[in-house]
Amino acid sequence: MLDLNTVFYTSISVTVLMSFLNFLTWRANKSIPGTLLYVFYPVVIFVALSCFFILKSLPSGVSLGSGICTSMLFIASLLQAYALCKFLDFKHISFNIFIAVTTWLIIAFWWFLYGDVNLHNRILIVDLHRIIEALFLSYLFIKIGLNTYPNGSYIYLCNSALLLAVFSLRAFLLFDVNSNEITQNLFFSLPIFMAGILSPMLIATGIAVLCNERRALHLKNMTEKAQKDSELRGLFLSTMSHEIRTPLNGILGSAQLVMNQSNDPRDKPYCEAIINSAESLNLLIDKVLDYASLDQSTGPLYEEDIELKPWLENLCLLLSPLAEQKNIKFELNFNLPDQACYYCDQQKIRQVLINLVGNAIKFTDRGKIKIQVDLIGSTALEHSLRFAVEDTGPGIENDEIEYLTEPYVQSSAGKIKGGTGLGLAISSRILDKLKSQLNISSELGKGSIFSFDITLGLGELSLVEQRHQSSEYLTGLNILLVEDLPLNQKIAIEFMAMDEHKVKLADNGQSAIDMMQKHQFDLVLLDMNLPDFNGPEVLKKLKLLKHKNQRTPILAFTASLSPDEIKEYLSLGIKDIVGKPIKLEKLRQALLNSQNTQAPSLVTELTPVLYDETAAKTLENSFTEDELSSIYNEFVLSARSKLNRCQELLNTDTEQSIKIIHRQASTALQLGFNLYGMALKKVERKLLDKKPTETEFEHISELWQESLVGYLAYVKGSL
Question: Residue limits of the Response regulatory domain (predicted)?
């Protein structure tokens, strides 16, 4: 037999502890329904036990204390059931039935206390209530709780099973026991121990576990929602970018047409403003997509072995023409062994460096830009490197530096120069993925340093594809590229950077002449139709001037390959001809031929088709998908209007008409519209020879329509 006084006092202590634990649970989970009600559950039990303890010492107080205590315990069970229903969002008639049965049992208990006095019946009523409560809570957690909160549900089900067992046993085993001996029986005191000590401990533990599971489930739902929102945002941005670019390219094409067609000089600044604004918006779309794509890329880093110095030199070859156009010195200071090889995600590091150097070129108007690479720490398997991009730009205010890596934030100089305010934000987030961070130091009037420290695993030279001088193509030449079309500029620079050629860029004939007077080149790639002079005129002017490239091979860069033109080019000293559209293998062969006595290679290898699908695949190496889509959209949208404009100019400004046709033909051939481009070149040749072309334009217009159908069929098939 258990001592009832000991059980009573222990029960009070456990109830006080349960009150404290439930209060702490509520403080940590105030937003969860039902937790506040659970704080009052042990309080009501404590008040019930206290009333019994106080009243039992009074005359006839045992019966009154017993009635009040039992009623309050029944009310506490209703409070617990209601709190759990709120927590589990359970709305069912079974709870109303439980309330009604509990109310009826309270009334019955008082009846058998003061009316038909019967101790057996009062104990049976308490047992029945405990059994009904256990059955209701078991139903509640089996129906709802187990699926969502399994751990907490198991604790409550365990508690309900224990209560159901002990109170069912007491109801049956004490039925025939004499009233005077009931309180001395073990089966009377054991359920009291279970209900007053063990059950409160299980309940306090159960509600705490339920709240933890609720928080974990909420966090999981929020994470899934955030991931879904991120995917939807990425999909929305990607879709909208394509939808915005189509009318934007239409605006660009229309503005360029108006500027070319109008004879009123007052229209030019307005058209230029439209074009600049549209191009800025295009750049903003690209940067927003880049920034949004960082949320999507949750996969592992794509790491591979690279030999760092040649990799950086290749990157510099790609960026140096942009710096040289602004007469800015560009250099690489590599303070590591030449054969240093590392294991890293080279694409992400490349994107960061391109962003940082691009910013430096934009903000630096004089002086120099330097990429500095230093070793700052090492272990047996890893090196810590510091990459720094230094410029001599205007500098940045100290109070602006800490905000520069936030999206859409610009420095004072940035607001003047323009831009999206996303370049540094993108770089910073990429470095976060690489477990590094962007450091910025600056001094007004002297320049800025953007750096990051990164730990890279040592690579194995045996895994690196070693560079070599191939007998099939040359590497490392100093080349002057003279080309006015941005599309051809980018493709040619990308191709030549692949073979480590150092490229300087001129976009008109006079710039080319000036550069050839200042610099010695191994090779000159000369476009035969420039905005100010054509190729033959440039060559004739060079013969009359002193310059440093008297013996330098000059290659004609042209799509005009008629026999008369080829004869003229060769007579002027052209070493070889690089036909347009630009193909990597053709370019490599021409560069190789230029350095020996081999005869010129004049085969253009153009397939006479409406649309050449290989053209887009060639351009994929030089442009992103969005850039390539923008180039094609702009050309397709403006092609017919430019053709009509050429017809209108035939009688009033033939020279301007020839220029438009030349640019259209070069772009058409580069983009794969072979028959259309070849037809335009034929018309250009006739106009230069002053032959009639009235019947040609109708044929070209029909040819363009057929070419467009072929291109759209290719696009539809690739979706």
Answer: 478-595
What superfamily would CATH give domain 304-458?
A: Histidine kinase-like ATPase, C-terminal domain (3.30.565.10)
Cβ atoms < 10 Å from Cβ of 426 = 21
Of the candidates 320, 622, 305, the residue with the CA atom closest to the CA atom of residue 500 = 320
- Angle between the N-to-C axes of helices 4-28 and 186-193, in degrees from 0 to 180, rounded to the nearest 10: 20
Hey, where are the domains in the chain?
4-225, 304-458, 478-595, 613-718
User: What CA–CA distances, in Å, run from 198 to 92, 158, 194, 205, 223?
Assistant: 29, 11, 5, 11, 38
Q: How many CA atoms lie within 13 A of 133 on its CB side?
A: 28
In 3-state terms the chain splits into helix, strand, coil percentages (rounded to 5) of 65, 10, 25
Q: What is the mean pLDDT of residues 536-554?
A: 85
Fold of 4-225: Rhopdopsin 7-helix transmembrane proteins (1.20.1070)
Burial class of residue 215, CB neighbours in 10 A (0-12, 13-18, 19+): middle
445 pLDDT higher than 60: yes
How far apart CA 136 and CA 98 sit, in angstroms, is: 7
Give the closest residue to 511 by CA, choosing from 495, 497, 496, 527: 527
Ordered alpha helix ranges (H), 29-60: 35-55
Question: Residues near 486 by Cβ (< 8 Å), separated by ≥ 6?
Answer: none
CB under 8 Å to 453, separation ≥6 — which residues?
Answer: 376, 384, 385, 386, 436, 439
Architecture of the domain whose range is 478-595 = 3-Layer(aba) Sandwich (3.40)
Long-range pairs of 231-235 with CB within 8 A, sequence gap ≥ 24: 231/296, 233/292, 233/295, 234/292, 234/293, 234/295, 234/296
Nearest to 628 by CA among 641, 642, 643, 618: 618
- For residues 5 and 3, what is the distance between their CA atoms, to the nearest angstrom? 6
Of the candidate ranges 75-79, 151-155, 593-597, 608-612, the one whose mean pLDDT is the lowest: 593-597
pTM, two decimals, is 0.43
Topology match between the domains 4-225 and 478-595: no
Strand order in the sheet with 576-579: 502-506, 478-482, 523-527, 554-558, 576-579
Residue 540 identity: K
Distance CA 364, CA 719 (A): 43
Rounded-to-integer distance, Cα 94 and Cα 688, Å: 96
Using the predicted structure, report yes or no on whether residue 106 has a pLDDT greater than 60: yes
